[in-house]
Amino acid sequence: MAELTIGRRHVPLGNPGKALFTDPTTTKSDLAGYYRTVATVMLPHLRERPLALQRFPDGIGSAGFFQKRRPDNAPDWVPGARVPREGEGDTVEMICCPDEATLVYLADQAVVTVHPWLSRADRPRHPVRLVVDLDPPGDDFDTVRFAALALRDLLGELGLPAYPMTTGSRGMHVMVPLVGRQDVDEVRRFARGVADVLAARHPDRLTTEMRKDRRGGRLLLDVMRNAYALHAVAPYAPRPLPGAPVATPLDWDEVDDADLTARRYTVRSVPGRIDRVGDPWGRVDRHARILSTAARRLRSWR
């Protein structure tokens, strides 16, 4: 057992040498160190948002699980927020992450990947993020880059900013920051409308068909995570894959790079990247939008 002092907090780190990742080996202590290094850029994307936690107590080579409920034995200083369950009439208390000490607590719990809601805990039905997941049929990342750039251009026609991120797995996310005025159903309908228009423009390469056997080798424009109580991988979160790849925000000129892949950046390379380029998503909330005008324009196209 190790203990880390972070500000006024004393955060235990059990079994710090436990290997969580392979190729190369990355331990629980390494994960805690990574979280500490990226906390300044990662925390703004987590604060005030309920978190779904993807845990791998025995490392990524064994079965992991999602934890959504705040553990009863969590330290008192680890904050929780009660949010309504969809359609069930009750609430669940979920962890929020406002500070570095809480990030390290998550590392102690072998939380490999953090998945925040797209809304804040105090207004859970009013998203502050719209996310389109670009899900390729295989390893064809050229189609992912094509879809991201086409989606950026379409959103630009609607007067909306767009921010790209490799997922650290297979594809990319394109995100639109929102003020939080529209409710989740409005946001989801708008996202689906955007995906439908883009798929219609490029029917040979893109689709909104959820069934894999009907996609015909096309990339899926997945907007399902814009539904209530769903979530998306956090910027700078590692993924449970060999090499510890990381979901990494990008500038758009990086999407033009033919050598880009979803797993280019890892827990070993991201800190140096942040030193060089900072956080490309660092000012997204300054560009948050209301969807009303864009939604009217989109309806006029259909």
TrEMBL record:
Keyword set includes Ligase: yes
Record keywords, A-Z: Ligase
Residue span(s) of domain DNA ligase D polymerase: 27-281
Gene Ontology molecular function: any one: ligase activity
Keyword Repressor attributed: no
CDD domains: LigD_Pol_like (cd04861)
InterPro entries documented for this protein: LigD_pol_dom, NHEJ_LigD
Superkingdom in the source lineage: Bacteria
Pfam assignment, any one: LigD_Prim-Pol
Descriptive protein name: ATP-dependent DNA ligase
